[in-house]
Write a structure and sequence with these properties.
- The structure holds two protein chains of two kinds.
- Chain A is an alpha/beta fold.
- Chain A has two domains: 36-139 and 275-304, 3-Layer(aba) Sandwich (Rossmann fold), CATH 3.40.50.2300; 141-272 and 310-338 and 389-401, Response regulator (Rossmann fold).
- Chain A has helices spanning 2-26, 48-64, 78-89, 103-112, 126-129, 141-161, 181-197, 214-226, 240-248, 276-292, 325-337; strands at residues 36-40, 67-71, 94-97, 117-121, 134-139, 171-176, 202-207, 231-235, 252-255, 267-273, 301-304, 311-313, 360-361, 373-374, 376-377, 380-381, 399-401.
- In chain A, the strands form four sheets. In chain A, strands 12-10-9-8-6-7-17 form a seven-stranded mixed sheet, with helices on both faces.
- In chain A, helix 2 (48-64) crosses helix 10 (276-292), helix 3 runs parallel beside helix 4 (103-112) and helix 6 (141-161) packs antiparallel against helix 11.
- The radius of gyration of chain A is 24 Å and the shape is globular.
- The model of chain A is unreliable at 24-33 (pLDDT under 50).
- By secondary structure, chain B is mainly alpha-helical.
- Chain B folds into two domains: 70-326, Orthogonal Bundle (ABC transporter involved in vitamin B12 uptake, BtuC), CATH 1.10.3470; 359-384.
- The radius of gyration of chain B is 25 Å and the shape is globular.
- Chain B has a two-stranded antiparallel sheet with strand order 1-2.
- The mean pLDDT of chain B is 91.
- The chains are: A alpha/beta, B mainly alpha.
- At the A-B interface, helix 1, strand 2, helix 3 and helix 4 of A face helix 2, helix 3, helix 4, helix 7 and helix 13 of B.
């Protein structure tokens, strides 16, 4: 025992000494970069949603030569405020946060540190909150969903032509997170895209009640497949639905990035928001302002589009996609860009059998969710025009909500 | 007979209970384990991120003590974990395996948020805070007393019962959040009423003081009160307890109410004193980590302050290291996992002796001789 304790004592002393030496030498920071940027993530690379933010930040870091500090696994509570102010302490000039629930804590931090820019993706409050250094951003991802929907419709057509099922049986399935405008806008545009090439298509939607729950997303996809859905897409952040599709051999249109590596036989295409243009826009604005010694000019509420390169589609997977998919997507994309194709054209869908002629959306966030802005203009539901975060929450014909369930 | 003995195969090693360990020796082993864990973590870190061996230690400390704010955050998180650990301690000391602290904290938090949500703007802030505080304690107690009643009345398995109650609590929180959050996003956001006051500009100081006071109170309760004695006896042996006339049912129910009340306070502090919102993950696994904290401290509230500090230090430091190395959120889990592997293992070596074949033969001889001498001495003494 005595021997053992001596050995332990020696080891202990050595360890502490080593730790101290190393700690002292490693404390010096050598990077001297003009700007420091922080990114607060709800999860980390394991979530396709966060991975999309992180990967874009990686590109921007290399291109704009900023120093980036990441904060992973930050929940939507006080920890987000702590993460934000800690990034301020670390010298960040700009702080991005990626999850909806981070917003109120980012706003608190923004009020406290007016010289740091706080940019929050998917939020809804910046345009009314009156905090000069707090900004929201989103992208018109419904355009990307629509294009992905075209790929889905063509795949259905191909399967109908091959005699796998009749045109009347062409039904898609969609795994959503919540019955929230962002999700509803996404699945509706996806459906409209598919319908534009496969007019008989219908769709079932199920909700998991969570933004990230691999088990529930997998089960959701399995339920939809069992109910006769021939093709699946999803708006939730895990690999649950894509892997369930690969296992069942059902084609899948993905989100947030390519899932081809894990699903080589069923992955068709994926739409995603490319955050790099927004990052670059903010970084340039802050750089410019620093040079001139003025306050940076950043839009309160920035909407990325196909034109800004914020809405992108991944490569089409030739193994799973129907022939001619890429051409059809390119044509539609060109039409969206030159303004001849409007996604939420009210002549293309009905609500309870009637065309939608007027709709007031809750654009300015308030507690009671009061509809405040007319968004149907000249027969077009103008999504993302009055606010970057989606507000299309209409239930259109042809789409069946299997549950309105937020959780299980 | 001798022939038989030589052929007997002795196992390579065997384990025996250790009774002679001195306190300082035990601490030396613990510190040794800590040092080894520190080195192993550095090695693991440099495997995951080549060249990070030294930086790992730097970041580990920088992430915790780097700025005054980080130190406050450390103290705040220690207070929160310690509060839950205090809550589970009386129950565990009674050998009532309450793994439902997570749910009890959540129910306290939910009740607090409920009061903030419905009373917001309709009453003075002080009134709301007071109602929140009482309601949280009551709800925590209710959530804890249900399995206790079943255990006392029908001897149901409290481990399964309390575990399942966690999931009920989580989904109740989800249900309420979805009811209250108006846009369907499943996120409640900050509630602007019923915030616990802060002392000066120190946001977390009041939380920390409350938990410190609780720690002392619980220490006194366990150590000096009749209740504390009774629950210890029930934990040691129910037969003894029955024999000396302790009402076991009453003790179980009373202790679990206490457990639940403290969990409720933890929930209150998390909502009214910290996040001002509620979600299903608000307890963040503290209900389970608290068991480790309490157990490692041998159910001593003062020692729990130390063990919870260790847990929070490791978590905060390794999270900072993981962020800095861009290794993602799992890095801190790996590091804390390694640490506790070593620290729990050290408890094993404190309580047990491992003897190997070759060494033990010699030592056994020596031991046998020593025992013989000792017996002779003892008998001589008795004779005198």
């Amino acid at each position: 025992m005595k021997k053992l304790s001596k050995v332990l004592a020696v080891i202990l002393v050595l360890a502490v000494a080593a730790a101290l030496c190393v700690a002292l030498t490693a404390c010096k920071d050598k990077e001297e970069v003009e700007l420091t940027v922080g990114l607060i993530c709800l999860h980390d690379n394991n979530s396709t949603y966060d991975k999309n933010f992180i990967a874009a930040m990686g590109e921007v870091e290399a291109a704009t030569k900023v120093k980036v500090i990441y904060k992973y696994n930050i929940p939507e509570e006080n920890a987000c405020y702590e993460a934000a102010v800690d990034l301020v302490d670390q010298g960040c000039d700009i702080i991005f946060a990626d999850s909806f629930g981070h917003e109120p804590y980012m706003m608190e931090a923004a009020k406290k540190y007016p010289n740091v820019q706080f940019c929050h993706a998917t939020g809804t409050n910046a345009h009314t909150a009156g905090i000069a250094n707090f900004h929201n951003a989103f992208a018109s991802i419904y355009e990307g969903r629509y294009l992905a929907g075209i790929a889905a419709g063509l795949k259905l057509n191909e399967m109908i032509a091959a005699g796998k099922f009749t045109a009347a049986e062409a039904k898609m399935g969609y795994v959503g997170a919540y019955t929230y405008a962002e999700v509803m806008s996404g699945y509706t545009s996806f459906y409209l895209g598919a319908k534009s090439v496969c007019p008989t298509v219908t769709m079932d939607v199920t909700f998991t009640g969570s933004w990230y729950n691999e088990d529930l997303e997998r089960q959701g996809a399995q339920t939809l497949i069992a109910r006769g859905c021939k093709l699946i897409s999803q708006h939730a952040d895990s690999m649950g639905a894509p892997t369930a599709c690969e296992k069942a051999g059902v084609p899948n249109v993905s989100y947030n990035g390519s899932t081809k590596a894990d699903c080589p036989n069923t992955f068709i295409v994926s739409s995603r928001i490319n955050w790099a243009p927004y990052y670059t826009y903010v970084i340039n604005a802050v750089r410019e302002a620093k040079k001139n010694g003025t306050a940076p000019k950043i839009e309160k509420d920035w909407t990325g589009t196909i034109a800004t390169g914020s809405v992108v589609l991944t490569e089409v997977n030739a193994t799973a996609a129907a022939a001619g998919t890429q051409e059809a997507i390119n044509n539609a994309k060109a039409a969206i860009e030159n303004g001849t194709l409007k996604i939420f054209d009210t002549s293309k869908f009905t609500v309870k059998g009637q065309p939608l002629t007027t709709y007031k959306a809750d654009v300015d966030t308030d507690k009671d969710r009061t509809p405040d802005t007319e968004v149907v203009i000249n027969g077009i539901f103008e999504e993302s025009k009055f606010r970057s975060a989606p507000y299309f929450d209409v239930e259109i014909d042809g789409i069946t909500l299997l549950d309105r369930n937020y959780g299980n | 007979m001798t022939k038989h003995e030589t052929h007997k195969k002795e196992p390579l090693m065997h384990i025996s209970k250790r009774m002679d360990m001195k306190k300082w020796q035990a601490w030396l082993i613990r510190l040794g384990a800590f040092a080894i864990a520190l080195i192993v973590c550095g090695i693991v870190s440099s495997i995951l991120k080549p060249g990070s061996f030294g930086k790992f230690y730097a970041y580990l400390f920088k992430g915790v003590f780097g700025t005054p704010r980080r130190i406050w955050l450390l103290l705040q998180n220690i207070a929160m974990l310690l509060c839950v650990a205090l809550a589970v301690t009386p129950a565990f000391k009674m050998k009532f395996w309450n793994i439902g602290a997570e749910g009890q904290v959540l129910m306290g938090a939910l009740m607090c948020a409920l009061c903030m949500f419905y009373m917001g703007g309709k009453a003075a802030n002080g009134v709301i805070v007071l109602v929140c505080f009482i309601a949280s304690m009551a709800m925590g107690a209710i959530w804890a007393v249900i399995p206790a009643l079943f255990k006392a009345q029908w001897n149901t398995n409290e481990t399964l019962f309390t575990l399942m109650m966690n999931y009920v609590a989580m989904n109740l929180v989800r249900f309420c959040v979805n009811k209250w959050s108006t846009n369907g996003s499943g996120v409640l956001g900050i509630l602007h009423y019923g915030w616990m006051p802060s002392i000066g500009k120190y946001t977390y100081l009041l939380n920390i003081i409350i938990v410190a006071v609780l720690t002392v109170l619980l220490w006194v309760y366990l150590r000096f009160s009749k209740h504390g004695y009774e629950l210890t006896v029930v934990g040691e042996s129910t037969n003894t307890a029955r024999y000396i006339g302790i009402n076991i049912k009453k003790v179980i129910i009373r202790t679990m109410i206490l457990s639940g009340v403290i969990c409720g306070i933890a929930g209150f502090l998390l909502v009214s004193g910290t996040s001002h919102t509620v979600n299903a993950n608000l307890a963040d696994g503290r209900g389970f980590t608290a068991i480790l904290v309490s157990w490692l401290a041998h159910f001593n509230p003062a020692a729990m302050a130390l063990t919870s500090s260790l847990v929070v230090f490791l978590d905060q430091g390794s999270t900072f290291a993981g962020d800095s190395f861009r290794l993602g959120g799992s890095f801190s889990d790996i590091i804390t996992g390694i640490f506790f592997f070593f620290i729990i293992a050290s408890e094993f070596f404190i309580n047990y002796k491992v003897k190997f074949r070759a060494i033990s033969k010699k030592k056994e001889k020596a031991l046998a001789e020593a025992v013989a001498v000792a017996t002779v001495e003892v008998t001589e003494e008795e004779v005198r």
